[in-house]
Design a protein that fits this description.
CATH topology of chain B: ABC transporter involved in vitamin B12 uptake, BtuC
Number of helices of chain A: 13
Radius of gyration of chain A: 24 Å
Strand order of the largest sheet of chain A: 2-1-3-4-5-11
Number of strands of chain A: 12
Oligomer: heterodimer
Order of helices and strands of chain A: HHEHEHEHEEHEHEHEHEHEHEEHH
Strand content of chain B: under 5%
Structural class of chain B: mainly alpha
Distance between the termini of chain B: 25 Å
Order of helices and strands of chain B: HHHHHHHHHHHHHHHH
Largest interface: A-B, 74 and 92 residues
CATH class of chain B: Mainly Alpha
Helix content of chain A: 25-40%
Largest sheet of chain B: none
Shape of chain A: globular
Helix content of chain B: over 70%
Distance between the termini of chain A: 84 Å
Chain lengths: 428, 356
């Protein structure tokens, strides 16, 4: 290497080394995002009409976005389930659809079966299909397009599979969308061909989709409000967020903000990102706890990460705070029960894949039989778990390391409940 | 153990004022003393000095601004996170050193994790046997990946991506879609920050990581197979001419990478407590980031010790950022920019070396 080459190399290495230093420092000074406690704007496009105001420990009342007046047509008791619903609730394009009059061909588009919930959904849908086939409601095989790898799946991959189902001539497609918004155009196109789409868990904002979903807002707000009440409106709070950018996560985050906004003595000391994966939540919380030695009274996690939260606190030997156990699992409830002997109390929400898939399939069959859905989104008030009904949801002998789902507890959407959302439910 | 292929290059650079014609027996008499800057540059090439200084600086920043950061439990927690990422990055380091990349890492981590959670109580088959089978299967699949990449000149991104998906799929089929009853107690204790090792208050996974670092470094730089691996990465054509079977190296390295990922999955299952097939995903990006940030270039020079520095820097920085309330997006930006910056340093350095 001659002198000039060496000089150039030295300049480059020095400049680039400085680049690493500057990069880290600049990133470090890039500004932290607003936390719940500082009143940062949130919610984005899902901001509901109406003002979130309530006393500490109460769930705010926010009118749902009901452009077609479909929710207002429902019985008053059912309308409560739509409080603060995060997305528009349309009237259904299938209200006047006539009965199919023959066995239906059924398609199924689903996400990777990466956890006990997903496995239960797939198993129950197959069981429901087999039963419907025996009853003469469906024919052939269940045509599946299930993505395999959660690391590489994309909305585009799911839409491609969905369109293959459309081309295969199915009458109804059961889908859990990776992105509800991304699927709107595909669902509209299928709907114009007469193909019914029934979505579980995520909402597809199309009149041709019938959505069967928990109310993402209430699912977080109700247990959070209960825990705030248990703490008498005082204490430090950490928030464990899910996969940011997903509609349900944004809505759940807004629910935490709204509930805590009414509790001036509850201070949010920080947030971590758990990505809806318990081990990720545990790892991120360990980092958080390393720099937050103060007492934490509540951890508001935005769904299915309760087991990771409990594990993080247990592994560091710190006192376990009240964990908002939205989307509880056998593992998280077992941790809760283990602490309950010492007077530990918190709140969560239940429901499992088996219950939800059964209701999901029934809704599709009702639509095909011409029952006439009154509304495009069917939801419910969450099943809240407290110390009084913990045993109803905790599987017998469950341990904190268990992977299973919670027991049925309260019926999720039984037939009589679903019937209220249809004009002619008896046709089924 | 920062030995790299660059020793001869560095020696030549230490005497920039001396050309080949004047060097000889009396070169020692005319060789000027390198300046402090040249000495630091030379050191940076052989040792990730900037990264170490940054790690210390960020750690000191955290200690100064965040109460509790220096608590023993906090430090143990950070070390556990480092150890998990470090163990998951061993295979990636080896693969990068031969100019490859391994995206199947996440899939093989799931294989190991499911083995220890789902198949730990199969009647008549002890867990060590099940683990040995899983490691062997992983190594076979990894070796096949290495063979396909080398034999058919297919880019490893494609083959390893497919292999990872297949590993997850086969695991799901064999386990019947379930992920078992959770990790056994011994696996959980390995990575618990409150655990100790033979009475020393250091979690076992950290001790394992330290030992692994030493073993990998010795094997890589002080043994014939290790030097063959480095030679294959530094110059495949030259390695072939030197009668090194580069195909054998590729097959072996990918087999080792997959086998180590399976073992890392066992430890990660203990940390996670319970397993699903997303368990390995965070460690895929982390392993690549740690290797690149540590200063190991594709094809070398580099070492696993550099990766450990990359792991320490990434973990300390992310811990401080989380502690200061930074969000996921901030951390993602940071990770991406840091990798770009590291590539600016080491990617350029490799091109310069190739021109010599």
């Amino acid at each position: 290497m001659n002198r000039s080459t060496h000089r150039r190399a030295r300049t480059r290495v020095v400049a680039s080394s400085s680049g690493i230093v500057l990069t880290v420092l600049l990133a470090g000074c890039g500004g932290s995002s607003g936390s719940v406690g500082n009143g940062a704007a949130g919610g984005g496009t899902t901001e509901a009409k109406g003002k979130a105001s309530a006393d500490c420990g109460q769930v705010p009342t926010i009118a749902p976005k009901d452009p077609d007046g479909a929710v207002k047509e429902l019985p008053a008791e059912l309308q409560k389930a739509y409080n603060a619903y995060g997305e528009e609730v349309f009237a259904s394009a299938w209200r006047d659809r006539k009965a199919l009059g023959r066995p239906a061909k059924v398609g199924f588009s689903y996400l990777p079966t990466s956890n006990a919930y997903a496995a239960a959904v797939v198993k129950q849908l197959e069981a429901s299909f087999a039963k419907a086939k025996a009853d003469g409601l469906v024919k052939g095989k269940l045509v599946k397009r299930i993505m395999t790898d959660p690391a590489t799946m994309t909305p585009a991959e799911q839409i491609r599979g969905y369109n293959e189902l459309v081309d295969s001539g199915v009458d109804v497609i059961y889908v859990t969308p990776l992105s509800g918004d991304a699927m709107v155009a595909a669902v509209d196109a299928a709907g114009k061909k007469g193909i019914v789409t029934v979505a579980l868990s995520s909402t597809i904002r199309s009149k041709y989709a019938v959505n069967v979903a928990e109310n993402s807002y209430l699912n977080i707000a109700e247990p959070t409000a209960l825990v705030a009440e248990q703490l008498k409106g005082k204490g430090n709070v950490a928030v464990v967020r899910g996969f940011q950018g997903l509609s349900a996560e944004t809505i759940g985050y807004k629910a935490v903000k709204d509930v805590l906004a009414a509790c001036p003595d509850m201070k949010v000391i920080g947030e971590v990102n758990g990505a809806y994966v318990p081990p990720v939540a545990k790892g991120e919380l360990l980092k958080f706890l390393s720099s937050h030695p103060q007492k934490i009274d509540m951890v508001a996690q935005l769904g299915v990460m309760g087991s990771g939260v409990y594990a993080a606190f247990e592994s560091t030997g710190r006192d376990t705070p009240k964990v908002v156990d939205a989307g509880a699992s056998a593992s998280s409830l077992a941790s809760w029960e283990k602490l309950a002997a010492d007077g530990y109390e918190t709140a969560g929400t239940g429901g499992n894949g088996t219950q939800q898939a059964k209701a999901w399939f029934d809704v599709g069959m009702l639509v095909l039989q011409g029952a006439g859905p009154k509304v495009g989104t069917i939801t419910r008030e969450p099943s809240v778990i407290t110390k009084d009904n913990l045993a109803d949801y905790l599987p017998q002998g469950a341990k904190p390391s268990d992977l299973g789902e919670v027991k049925d507890g309260e019926p999720w959407m039984p037939e009589e409940y679903l019937a209220q959302f249809f004009d002619n439910p008896a046709k089924n | 153990m920062m030995t790299t292929q660059q020793d001869s290059l560095s020696a030549a650079e230490a005497a920039p004022g001396v050309d080949a014609a004047t060097s000889g027996a009396d070169s020692a008499e005319v060789r000027p003393t390198p300046s402090a800057g040249q000495w630091l540059l030379s050191l940076q090439r052989r040792f990730p000095l900037v990264q170490v200084l940054l790690t210390v600086a960020v750690f000191a920043w955290g200690a100064a601004t965040m109460p509790g950061f220096l608590e023993p439990t906090s430090i143990r927690s950070v070390l556990v996170l480092c150890a998990l990422a470090g163990l998951a990055s061993i295979g990636q380091t080896l693969v990068v050193l031969i100019r490859g990349i391994d995206l199947s890492l996440a899939g093989f981590i799931v294989v190991g994790a499911v083995t220890v959670t789902r198949f730990s109580d199969v009647p008549g088959v002890p867990l060590p046997v099940m683990l040995a089978v899983a490691v062997a299967c992983g190594a076979t699949a990894g070796g096949l990946v290495g063979y396909m990449c080398h034999r058919f000149a297919i880019h490893p991104i494609i083959v390893t991506l497919a292999a990872g998906s297949i590993a997850v799929g086969v695991t799901a089929v064999l386990s019947g879609g379930g992920y078992g009853a959770g990790a056994p107690g011994w696996a959980t204790r390995l990575s618990s920050p409150m655990s100790s090792t033979f009475g020393i208050p250091v979690p076992p996974v950290v001790v394992i990581w330290v030992l692994a670092t030493a073993v990998v470094s010795v094997l890589l730089h002080r043994t014939l197979p290790g030097r063959r691996l480095l030679a294959t990465g530094a110059g495949p054509v030259a390695a072939d001419l030197a009668h090194i079977s580069t195909r054998k190296v590729w097959v072996t390295v990918y087999a080792i990478s997959a086998a180590l990922a399976v073992l890392a999955g066992v430890v990660l299952a203990g940390f996670a407590g319970n397993v699903d097939n997303r368990l390995g995903n965070p460690y895929l990006f982390l392993s690549i980031a740690a290797v690149v940030l540590g200063g190991t270039a594709f094809g070398g020079p580099g070492s696993y010790t550099r990766t450990t520095v990359g792991v320490l820097l990434l973990t300390v920085v992310s811990t401080v950022l989380v502690g200061m309330g930074f969000q996921e997006a901030d951390q993602q930006i940071l990770n991406g920019v840091v990798i770009l910056a590291a590539m600016a340093v080491y990617g350029r350095e490799r091109r310069l070396r190739d021109q010599v």
